[in-house]
Write a structure and sequence with these properties.
Blueprint: H1 2-40, H2 44-49, H3 58-72, H4 79-140, E1 145-150, E2 161-166, E3 173-174, H5 180-197, E4 202-206, H6 214-225, E5 232-236, H7 240-244, E6 248-254, E7 260-266
Parallel strand pairs: 4-5
Antiparallel strand pairs: 1-2, 2-3, 6-7
Helix pairs in contact: 4-5
Length: about 280
């Protein structure tokens, strides 16, 4: 009986010591879990899922890791959160950049399509104006030749336009080498070529024939007559011969002691009488 009593007593002491040891282990486990959350931002399951370090000298490995941490210096405990924020920001900017690059590619296609369409329309208009210029140049310069050309046909939208004029009896020359009256006539030929290519209900001309002598003025009036049936022509002029071919004259007059006023005179019903 005494032996059994002693065994029971020993068992109770062993149980009590085991309970104390279990409590200490639980406290140490909780401390380790708190250290994991505080220092490594990890839970128990994550720590247990990590592979066990190889080797038997775990204490030496722990000391080496602690020495490495000390050499690394202070650690930012919010680094993981900041990294996730920066990663999300980076992903957002990458998506925005992809959208911009896609938009740039689409815009490039639109620009190319517009350039192609503009080039096509410009080529058509240029050919029409070129043909009309040659025709009107022959009217203003009987027996002469004129043409317009692109200095760079590979880049029609940015190429300068060169006007070449050859009045009868002169070598082929550029506009800059013509006299003042010849330059005026060549410019009028080009202007009316544009008018013919892109018609308008009316045209306003301001002193365009001021530099022309009588013979050149007659040629200009013949060219003007070709447009009279298709559009209204408003000509600001001081030339008497230009006024004589007008349908209506408008002017400003001021009587002595009075104020200026606008007057008009229709000439369409008048007949030009020949001398004698």
């Amino acid at each position: 009986y005494q032996a059994l009593t002693r065994q029971v007593s020993d068992a109770k002491e062993t149980r009590s010591a085991s309970s104390i040891e279990l409590a200490e282990i639980a406290v140490r486990r909780e401390a380790l879990a708190e250290a994991l959350r505080r220092d490594l931002d990890a839970g128990e399951d994550e720590a247990q899922a990590e592979p066990r370090p190889e080797g038997d000298d775990l204490a030496g490995m722990l000391a080496e890791r602690e020495a490495q941490l000390r050499r690394m210096g202070p650690i930012n405990p919010l680094a993981r959160e900041e990294y996730h924020e920066l990663e999300q920001r980076h992903a957002f900017l990458v998506a925005q950049l992809d959208d911009l690059e896609k938009s740039a590619r689409e815009l490039g296609k639109v620009i190319k399509a517009l350039d192609d369409e503009i080039s096509s329309q410009f080529a058509t208009a240029f050919e029409e104006i070129s043909a009309s210029f040659a025709e009107f140049f022959g009217v203003l310069f009987p027996g002469g030749r004129g043409r317009i050309a692109l200095t760079d046909r590979d880049q029609p939208l940015t190429s300068p336009v060169e006007i070449v004029a050859q009045p009868m009896g002169k070598k082929l020359t550029k506009m800059s080498l013509l006299s003042g009256g010849e330059r005026s006539l060549a410019s009028l030929a080009f202007l009316f070529a544009v008018f013919k290519s892109r018609p308008s209900p009316f045209y306003l001309l301001d002193e365009v024939e001021a530099a022309l002598d009588d013979s050149n003025l007659h040629r200009f009036l013949r060219l003007l007559a070709t447009f009279r049936n298709g559009a209204q022509l408003i000509v600001v002029t001081h030339q008497q011969q230009t006024m004589e071919v007008a349908d209506v004259l408008y002017g400003v007059t001021m009587e002595p002691g009075g104020s200026s006023r606008v007057v008009s005179k229709s000439l369409s019903h008048l007949e030009v009488l020949s001398p004698g």
